[in-house]
Design goal:
Elements: H1 4-11, H2 16-24, E1 28-39, E2 53-63, E3 69-77, H3 84-92, H4 97-103, E4 109-113, E5 135-143, E6 146-155, H5 165-168
Antiparallel strand pairs: 1-2, 2-3, 3-6, 4-5, 5-6
Length: 171
């Protein structure tokens, strides 16, 4: 049985940021941001060749007022397929990927992928994925039918208080 969280995320055409902000009733920002340039290995979900430059990003989406950590996110992005302003904002602001997509007016589609492995990091080998989480999922984001990023998300226990009492035991 799917939880309200899982069903809501599957049905929304909004960004995860917009969905999350509506759920928790406060703006969220990307904290504990980490960026690293890396190279693609094949095969991959981004349809890029071996050695293609990728940007790895890790962040925790945190409530602006409450400082509660809501989602741990790890992403692999293809910078050559995204506007330079998008990439610059990722590097210099605490804006989430979803907020930047919206601000820049970039339309996207999201497709579920298998994973993530809950015991290892998606991008950074030295950062472990959260052991405690309500839901973990991985998706590919396309712009104009072209893959631009793969995102792994772990929805953290702080979200539990925003779910109905019957959903809290569904983990």
């Amino acid at each position: 049985m799917r939880s309200h969280l899982e069903s809501g995320l599957a049905q929304t055409d909004k960004t995860v940021t917009a969905f999350l902000e509506q759920l928790v009733g406060e703006p969220v920002d990307a904290h504990e941001r980490r960026h690293v340039m890396t190279r693609a290995v094949t095969p991959n979900f981004l349809d890029v060749g071996d050695g293609h430059p990728l940007l790895g990003r890790s962040a925790v989406l945190t409530g602006r007022k409450s400082a509660q950590p809501y989602v741990h996110v790890e992403s692999l992005l293809v910078p050559s397929r995204l506007p330079a302003d998008f990439c610059r904002q990722l590097e210099t602001s605490s804006d989430t990927i979803g907020r930047i997509l919206t601000t820049e007016g970039i339309g996207f589609t999201r497709s579920p992928l298998p994973g993530p492995d809950r015991h290892r990091a998606f991008v950074f080998g030295d950062v472990r994925a959260p052991e405690e989480h309500l839901l973990a999922r991985t998706c590919r984001v396309d712009v104009g039918g072209v893959p631009v990023m793969v995102i792994a998300e772990w929805f953290l226990p702080a979200l539990e208080s925003f779910l109905s009492p019957s959903e809290r035991g569904m983990r």
